[in-house]
Amino acid sequence: MNKFRNFKVDLMKILDEKDIKIDEPMKDHTSFKVGGPADILVTPENSDQVLDIIKLCKEKGIPYYIMGNGSNLLVKDGGIRGMAIKLTKLNSIKVKGERIIADSGASLKDVSQKALNNSLTGFEFACGIPGSIGGAVTMNAGAYNGEISNTIENVIVIDNHIKKRILNLEQLELDYRMSSILKYGYTVLKVTFKFEKGDYNKIQGRIQDLNRRRREKQPLEYPSAGSTFKRPEGHFAAKLIEDSGLKGTSVGGAQVSEKHSGFIINRDNATAKDILDLIKVVQDTVKKKFNVDLYTEVRIIGED
């Protein structure tokens, strides 16, 4: 029996029972469609619940992991010991003039659409990134020469003292796929973006163009976590992988995409181990051929 079942009684003082899952398969909550069970998965509906859940975990010594929609996450086959706190029900998006205030669980696509609807420019690059706002800010997500860091005014987080706190752009310490949120283990609750007024038709045209380019170049028909590897300084990961002769290489059900070698895809009922083993093959081969280290952009958690 899951040793955390008794913890459910405490959680039910904070959450509705429908928002608490025991032994929940993480393959149902990640875009890779792999991963063993989380001892507990909760889906809080507001920021106060998030705060209370984290406090309870700290008091009881329960490890926890904050997640959005699992689009940049690889959970190992043994699953997650402790709790996964999934924030996708925190998804409010409000427009105030040239600002958009979005909860951490709101999708980048929905915020991009809201910006378009209000003729606000600056977020077009994010229209096809499949992640949530919280994860995108944590990783300073970017695409097509745009980055989240170019649009943020401030972020409300839960800090290590389990207090709500506002971080300005400087305090976020945003760098390539890095932030103070990731560095210190903060939890994103809400983000304020600052945009500029633009021309609706031009913004729409840019979004349509980027979506077309994604469909043409990326293996969107297969489960994946987007770009598997960070961009090595002075190189492009996909080119290094392709020039190493690895395009189409498979381990079990995992494959280096034949459409875009920067993506490892779940082609045929892969396990997390298949994906991890293929990541290692790619890293070792590129290191041997080009003496370049590839580091994963996808976040890897859980037990074997």
From TrEMBL:
Catalytic activity from the UniProt record: UDP-N-acetyl-alpha-D-muramate + NADP(+) = UDP-N-acetyl-3-O-(1-carboxyvinyl)-alpha-D-glucosamine + NADPH + H(+)
Top EC class for this record: oxidoreductase
Entry superkingdom: Bacteria
GO biological process: cell division; cell wall organization; peptidoglycan biosynthetic process; regulation of cell shape
Metabolic or biological pathway, per its Swiss-Prot or TrEMBL entry: Cell wall biogenesis; peptidoglycan biosynthesis
EC number: 1.3.1.98
Gene Ontology molecular functions: FAD binding; UDP-N-acetylmuramate dehydrogenase activity
Compartment(s) of residence: Cytoplasm
Keyword Cell wall biogenesis/degradation appears in the UniProt entry: yes
Residues of the FAD-binding PCMH-type domain: 34-198
Keywords: Cell cycle, Cell division, Cell shape, Cell wall biogenesis/degradation, Cytoplasm, FAD, Flavoprotein, NADP, Oxidoreductase, Peptidoglycan synthesis
Entry coiled-coil feature ranges: none
InterPro entries, per the entry: FAD-bd_PCMH, FAD-bd_PCMH-like_sf, FAD-bd_PCMH_sub1, FAD-bd_PCMH_sub2, MurB, MurB_C, MurB_C_sf, Oxid_FAD_bind_N
UniProt xrefs under Pfam families: FAD_binding_4, MurB_C
Catalytic residues (UniProt): 177, 227, 297
One Gene Ontology cellular component: cytosol
Cofactor: FAD
Recorded family membership: Belongs to the MurB family.
Matches recorded under PANTHER family: UDP-N-ACETYLENOLPYRUVOYLGLUCOSAMINE REDUCTASE
Protein role: Cell wall formation.
Protein name from the UniProt record: UDP-N-acetylenolpyruvoylglucosamine reductase
Species this protein is from: Candidatus Afipia apatlaquensis
Lineage, highest ranks first: Bacteria, Pseudomonadati, Pseudomonadota, Alphaproteobacteria, Hyphomicrobiales
